[in-house]
Amino acid sequence: MRLTQPFSNTGYRIRFQLKNCYFASATKRGCSFPNSCTAESLFTLAVIYSNTTGLQLKEDIERKIETDFGKNSVQAINIIINAIDKTDYIKTDRVLRCIIYLAKGSIDELHKYIEVATFDTRDVMLWAEYEKLNEDFNYKRVRDFNKTFEESTKDVKE
């Protein structure tokens, strides 16, 4: 990837020369690209766009989106960006990891869990990080999404 135009002071416009995708651009209003772009290039553009809007996705979150959502990873990132624009408090790494974990690569489930998190982030944290032990309200924490996806099951504290 080669940056062909730096950030401007007038609104985050940025242009890129991506592999097999020349002169793709991202602004704070959205992304544009020629039809010849590859899925890899589009994902890269979506990640760069998220960075131009002030959202800094951690590397493990980017990898998980790309792995779980595959060809729909660009759409998933755009859905996440739009949700954060509307509801700023869901942008924490922990909440994003919980939503992505629960969605399991489904765009419909991504919408569902973003909506749940918008109402109360504690719900997605409970469902993603804890397992129910019995029919009562006894839960055990089995994941800690304050850590990366790779580290989330190691040394989990209640």
Helical fraction? 40-55%
Overall morphology? globular
Number of domains: 2
Query: C-alpha Rg, in Å?
Result: 17 Å
Q: Which strand order does the major sheet show?
A: 1-2-3-4
Low confidence ranges:
1-34
Mean pLDDT: 75
Distance between the termini: 43 Å
Strand content: 15-25%
- Summarize the helix and strand pattern as letters: EEEEHHHHHHEE
Structural class based on helices, strands and sheet pairing: alpha+beta
Number of helical elements: 6
Q: Quick one: biggest sheet? A: 4 strands, antiparallel
Number of β-strand runs? 6
Walk me through what this model shows:
There is one protein chain. The chain has 158 residues and is α+β, with helices and mostly antiparallel strands. It is built from 6 helices and 6 strands. It has a 4-stranded antiparallel β-sheet, with helices on one face. Strand 5 (130-132) and strand 6 (139-141) form a beta hairpin. The model is unreliable at 1-34 (pLDDT under 50).
Concise overview:
The protein is built from 6 helices and 6 strands, in the order ββββααααααββ. The chain has helices at 39-52, 59-69, 73-86, 93-103, 107-119, 121-129, and strands at residues 2-5, 14-18, 21-27, 30-32, 130-132, 139-141.
Topology of this protein?
Elements: E1 2-5, E2 14-18, E3 21-27, E4 30-32, H1 39-52, H2 59-69, H3 73-86, H4 93-103, H5 107-119, H6 121-129, E5 130-132, E6 139-141
Antiparallel strand pairs: 1-2, 2-3, 3-4, 5-6
Helix pairs in contact: 1-3, 2-3, 2-4, 3-5, 4-5, 4-6, 5-6
